[in-house]
Amino acid sequence: RPRVLVSVVVALVALVALVLVFGGADASDSSTASIATKVKSGEFRVIVTTTGELRARKAVQIQGPPNMQAAQVYQTRISTLVPEGTVVKEGDLVAELDRSAVAGKFQEVSLALQKAEAQYTQAQLDSTLNLATAREEIRTLELALEEKRIARDQSKYEAPSIRRQADIEHEKAERAFAQAKENYVTKKQQAIAKMREVGSELERQRNQLNIIQSVMGGFTIKAPAPGMVIYDKEWNGRKKVVGSQVSAWDPTVATLPDLTQMESVTYVNEIDVRKIAV
Prior knowledge:
Elements: H1 2-34, E1 52-56, E2 59-63, E3 75-81, E4 87-88, E5 93-97, H2 100-154, H3 160-218, E6 220-222, E7 227-228, E8 230-231, E9 245-247, E10 252-257, E11 262-266
Antiparallel strand pairs: 1-11, 2-10, 3-5, 3-9, 4-7, 5-6, 8-10
């Protein structure tokens, strides 16, 4: 019947409303209870987590030749390198550097040394010849002066014009002889200066060749002390491995750390720095 049906519908609506009201209250009470806690006194710790590395405070550097710049070899590459973590003894082989750059410089300086030696020998021969010629000229002028002196002495009984001519010839021979002696002194000083110049160049090339030979010997890098090999880092933070560059200003290839004293190295983000305290 319509009246009974209306009563049933009203009763169902009322029941649903009651379920919704009391069910929502229970859910609200349960969520409120899940975030509630009791207040207590204690240390409040702010922890910032970062990543870093462990390294030794002290380490012995394993370096290439320190005089690469003097040999005009400013950069080379690592051709061989023992694995990181290898325990070595003093004098053990650690690395080999690429010799191609220094080999070219060695060839260049060797040719320059040969040229300097040839120039030194040529200067010696030239000086010997020039001074010998100058001495022979002095001797010839000395004999000519003696002849003019005899001619002047013999002309004392001749006419005045002949005596005057003899005096002039003697004076000219005397001046030529004096000039030759002065020229000989100048030529000797020139020879000394020339020999000093070529000798200096020869010595410079010899020293340069010795430096290059020393650098080439240093391209075989050995451990300066016993320890564990740890790779060195480049300016960008990458480790130096086979193929990495080694410059004259930073010849370090690896290190031998002192593992008795270690330190932790890390970097904190700028936004977290204010959270850090001693």
